[in-house]
Amino acid sequence: xxxxxxxxxxxxxxxxxxIMSFNDHNSDATIYVLDCGIExxxxxxxxxxxxxxxxxLFVDAKKTLDKLDYNLNLDRGxxxxxxxxxxxxxxxxxxxxxxxxxxxxxxREPLNELYDSDLSPYVIGGIRDSFSxxxxxxxxxxxxxxxxxxxxxxxxxxxxxxxxxxxxxxxVIKKHNKIFQGDQGVINTAFCGKAxxxxxxxxxMTYLYDxxxxxxxxxxxxxxxxxxxxxxxxxxxxxxxxxxxxxKSDRPWNFSVRCxxxxxxxxxxxxxxxxxxxxxxxxxxxKYNRFFLLLIGLLHAYIRPVKNLLF
Length: 311
What we know:
- It is built from 14 helices and ten strands.
- It has helices at about 10-25, 40-50, 60-65, 85-90, 110-115, 135-140, 155-160, 165-175, 180-190, 205-210, 215-220, 230-235, 265-275, 290-310, and strands at about 1-5, 30-35, 55-60, 95-100, 105, 125-130, 150-155, 195-200, 205, 240.
- The strands form two sheets. A seven-stranded mixed β-sheet has the order 3-2-1-4-7-6-8, sandwiched between helices.
- Helix 1 packs parallel to helix 2 (about 40-50) and helix 11 packs parallel to helix 14 (about 290-310).
C-alpha cells in the first residue's frame, strides 16, 4: 500500500496525528511525505513514529511548487496543498497506485479495502462533497455529476502518467490561477466530474458533525448528495474523519471551546502522544439560528459561485 501526505513545517504536528492513526491500523505500507519545507528534526520525528511499522520516504516538493509562476488561490490552506496536483511526477515511476490523505485526517481502521478499490475506467477516486449545482457549474461539472473532496484521493498513477494529467492541470492553473476552492477546484476542473465515487465513510467532514442533516441541506444546498440514512451511518462509523474547516466550529489544533467534535478526544490522544505543541486556546463560542444559516447558505450556494462565474 502506498500512502501520500503533503505538508510544510507549520502543519507537521497535525500531519503526525494522521500518520500515527494510520500506523495503528495499517502496516507494511510506504508513506511518501511530499516535503514542502519540513525541518530535519521534524523529519526524524516522523521516521521514529513509523519505525518498525511503515516505511517513510520524503520527496522534495518545495522546489516544484516554488517554480509555479502563478498567483494561486490558496483558499484556506498553504501552497503545500497544491503538491497533490503533481503527485505523478513526485513519486517513483514504479509506484502504480497511491492513496493521498490530507494532513487533517484521522484514520480509524485498516484501509486495505479502500486501497484495493477498482478505479477502472477512471484515473482518480474520491468522496462526493456537498456543493450546489451552481457551485459545480464553476468547475464545468453538470448538475447531478460528481464533485469530489480532495482530502482523500485514490489515484491510478499508471493512467495519471499515461494520460498526462499534469499537463491538463498546468493548463487549468494557467487559465484559472485564482480558481475557486484552490487546489480542490483545480482537481475538479481538470477531471470535470469524471472521477470514481468512493463511500462517504472514507472522508467524513466536519460539517456533517456540526449540523443536523436538515441544517446541512439548508446551509449547503447540495446537488445530488447522499441520503440522510447514508450520512448517519458514516457519521457513526467513519473509517476516516476529516477535520475540515467549518464556520460553526474550530479545528482541534486551535484548542478552542468551539471544537466539540465527537472524535476530538481521539484526535487529541494522538496529538499528545506524538508531542504536538499545545496552544492557549480560544474561549469564545459561536451561536447561530436558522435565519443566519439560511443567509450563509445563500452566500455559499449562490452568491459566491455567481461571482466566480461572472468574474
